[in-house]
Structure to design on (611 residues):
């Protein structure tokens, strides 16, 4: 297996954003009531993460990383502390573009997202993707694969949760567990399941 | 120094650059073109992409009622929209519109953002109804500590045609009002002093519209009579929350003042059947019920009419003598005021208890409560308590008509 393919699998399943790292849970729980909306969110996540992580990688290495300005005679300059603001700006812009594209070409998905699409701007899983990229010193190709992989992992997880929740619509749950309560329990169980992937990765 | 300069200019360039890209893309993706909105196949309106349908219709004088001011809760701005320009129903509309209505292309005009040409169907009498009617206040009097009766003289061409149960929309202009300057009836001054309402202040920077039911009797033809309840903030919140925008303005009106209205509108009407009628009201829910009862009795109906009205104490009870007189004159009308918390000084000998309990006790003695028609209007808590009571009495929902004032 090539390294990139391995990285893709690793980021999608072993380091699954909502189920292993518990990141991005608010949209994960809020948009998992209907399968359609969940798939829409998943596609949006793949798009946003697949774009923002490599984009942020370029900005980081070209402008912010320690030593990025040595060609200008400033080898000691370290502006990595600006990474957080820069990343958020890029993510916000990409989300806006995505919103315009959906509004224009897929109004049904746009209406299903409602207020959640603008919320992707401050979604922690997306920002975490870019921050991990810095921390783990990924190359450009690795960043792109990592972004797509994390997005795919999120999409798979949210679609699965939505499918289970739609089935549970007919279950006779105790009153206190209906809705969000049950969603939390399901998330916990799914996360236990996903920890099996970590075992498999460790055994390799 | 260089570092600070570089870092600052870097972030500024990045943000400005991203914004420019976004603005350019928006131009390309969402072209700012004129759209055509056709209303009832007679009116052609021009709008811009992204405009709200309600605003477009209002600007053209189409008087769609919008009691909640466009927040998507009252459901009064329902219109039928066809054409791809209407887009998909928004999440807010799913709570208000039934699946059947959504299938029939019914939308809330206030939640519909235009994205293309479309055709709208509204009841014909709404076209032109949105034009504000200029009118003059001819009488005001206090009925209860927080309720004022305001009588407005309508221009000759607008006074005639409304059905009992209708409401009108009042457009309050920008204003500021210090409650200390409000004239209150000496009979209610004590309540005002104890509650500390005189220290309140209200102001509004822009025109605001709200719905108010007509409380007209047949002899009020050519006028509009309103019962306005001053929406004071909940007790204890007087310092942090402002009082109601439009009701405060209405409370400050004096004889001779100008007022702008639109309408009338409404779907809360007496049904043309032969069933017995039971009216249940509370607070300013009095207004539409009063209009309906007067109209029915004035037309000499033979249907039996009962009116249950709930208030806290004698001070909150109004029009009581008027209904007593009606009950004396008409054998088929009975009037039952119920006080939930009569003051010791009230010397109240009538019925006590919450109005839904009083209704239940009375209807349990009725041979067939499920054959009567029920008309309810009042605060949402009262409506839901009465609905539960009627459910227990076995009254089918189809025989219950109510208006909870958009609550
Ligand atoms: C069909 C229909 C008929 C109606 N008929 C009548 C009638 O006959 N008589 C009548 O009196 N009313 C009637 N109403 C209700 C009326 O339209 C208004 O809703 C009511 O008068 C309150 O409007 P407002 O502008 O005065 O208050 P608003 O400004 O809308 O405020 C409402 C309340 O919210 C509080 N408030 C303000 N700001 C905040 C905040 N930030 N957080 C929390 N609370 C806040 C205010 O103190 C006030 O108590 C009717 C409504 C409908 C839909
Ligand atoms: S104005 Fe649209 S729901 Fe009230």
């Amino acid at each position: 297996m090539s390294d990139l393919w391995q990285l893709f699998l690793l980021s999608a399943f072993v380091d699954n954003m909502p189920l292993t790292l518990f990141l991005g849970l608010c949209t994960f729980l809020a948009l998992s009531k209907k399968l359609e909306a969940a798939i829409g969110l998943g596609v949006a996540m793949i798009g946003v993460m697949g774009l923002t992580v490599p984009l942020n990688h370029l900005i980081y290495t070209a402008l912010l990383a320690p030593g990025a300005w040595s060609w200008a005679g400033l080898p000691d300059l370290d502006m990595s502390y600006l990474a957080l603001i820069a990343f958020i700006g890029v993510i916000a812009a990409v989300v806006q573009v995505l919103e315009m594209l959906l509004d224009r070409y897929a109004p049904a998905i746009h209406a299903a997202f409602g207020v959640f699409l603008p919320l992707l701007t401050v979604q922690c899983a997306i920002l975490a993707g870019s921050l991990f990229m810095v921390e783990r010193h990924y190359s450009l190709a690795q960043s792109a694969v990592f972004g797509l992989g994390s997005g795919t992992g999120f999409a798979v997880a949210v679609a699965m949760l939505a499918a289970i929740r739609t089935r549970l619509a007919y279950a006779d749950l105790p009153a206190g567990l209906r809705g969000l309560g049950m969603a939390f329990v399901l998330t916990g169980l799914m996360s236990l399941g996903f920890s099996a992937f970590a075992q498999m990765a460790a055994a390799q | 120094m260089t570092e600070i300069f570089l870092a600052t200019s870097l972030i500024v360039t990045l943000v400005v650059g991203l914004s420019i890209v976004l603005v350019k893309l928006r131009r390309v993706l969402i072209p700012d073109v004129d759209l055509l909105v056709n209303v009832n196949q007679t009116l052609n309106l021009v709008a811009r992409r992204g405009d709200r349908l309600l605003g477009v219709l209002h600007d053209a004088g189409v008087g769609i009622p919008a009691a909640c001011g466009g927040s998507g809760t009252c459901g009064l701005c329902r219109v039928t929209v066809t054409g791809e320009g209407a887009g998909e129903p928004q999440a807010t509309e799913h709570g208000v519109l039934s699946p059947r209505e959504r299938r029939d292309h019914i939308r809330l005009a206030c939640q519909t953002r235009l994205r293309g040409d479309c055709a709208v169907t509204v009841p014909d009498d709404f076209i032109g109804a949105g034009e504000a009617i200029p009118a003059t206040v001819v009488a005001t009097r206090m009925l209860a500590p927080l309720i004022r009766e305001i009588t407005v003289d309508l221009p000759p061409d607008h006074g005639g045609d409304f059905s009992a149960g209708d409401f009108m929309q009042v457009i309050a202009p920008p204003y500021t009002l210090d409650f200390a300057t409000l004239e209150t009836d000496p009979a209610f001054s004590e309540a005002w002093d104890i509650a500390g309402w005189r220290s309140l202040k209200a102001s509004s920077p822009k025109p605001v519209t709200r719905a108010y039911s007509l409380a007209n009797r047949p002899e009020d033809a050519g006028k509009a009579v309103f019962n306005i309840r001053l929406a004071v903030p909940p007790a204890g919140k007087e310092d942090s929350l402002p009082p109601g925008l439009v009701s405060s303005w209405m409370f400050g009106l004096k004889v001779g003042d100008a007022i702008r209205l639109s309408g009338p509108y409404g779907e809360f009407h007496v049904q043309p059947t032969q069933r017995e009628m039971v009216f249940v009201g509370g607070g300013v829910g009095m207004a539409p019920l009063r209009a309906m009862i007067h109209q029915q009795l004035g037309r000499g109906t033979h249907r039996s009419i009962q009116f249950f009205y709930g208030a806290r104490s004698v001070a909150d009870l109004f029009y009581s003598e008027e209904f007593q007189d009606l009950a004396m004159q008409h054998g088929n009308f009975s009037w039952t005021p119920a006080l939930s918390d009569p003051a010791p000084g009230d010397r109240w000998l009538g019925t006590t208890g919450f109005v839904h309990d009083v209704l239940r006790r009375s209807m349990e003695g009725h041979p067939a409560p499920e054959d009567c028609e029920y008309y309810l209007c009042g605060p949402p808590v009262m409506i839901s308590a009465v609905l539960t009571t009627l459910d227990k009495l076995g009254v089918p929902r189809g025989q219950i008509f109510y208006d909870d004032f958009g609550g």
Notes: DSSP finds nine helices and no strands in chain A. Residues 2-203 of chain A form one domain. Residues B 66-68, 70, 72-77, 108, 110 surround FE2/S2 (inorganic) cluster (ligand 2) (CB under 6 Å). The radius of gyration of chain A is 18 Å.
